[in-house]
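for the recovery benchmark. tokens below, seq after
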């Protein structure tokens, strides 16, 4: 089953957290802390990070209270809609 909502993409959907996985399909200037905090134990998030033009596809893994980030490849996405 799939649920969705529209709004500020950097805020996630805390009411349904924690998540095993989060996939962001627009480029954020930096990894949003609000999305990291919604990952469950051993959760994963993939998202493009960077400015206009080119970004890096980043895999974020939660391990306990720590987050490990791994750059995978260069990509080009539209900007993530945010009020920040």
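predicted aa per position
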């Amino acid at each position: 089953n799939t649920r969705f909502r529209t709004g500020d993409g950097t805020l996630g959907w805390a009411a349904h957290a924690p998540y095993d996985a989060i996939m962001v399909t627009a480029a954020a200037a930096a990894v949003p802390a609000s999305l990291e905090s919604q990952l469950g134990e051993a959760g994963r998030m993939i998202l493009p990070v960077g400015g206009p033009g080119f970004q890096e596809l980043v895999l974020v893994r939660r391990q306990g209270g720590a987050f490990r980030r791994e750059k995978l490849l260069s990509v080009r996405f539209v900007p993530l809609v945010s009020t920040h």
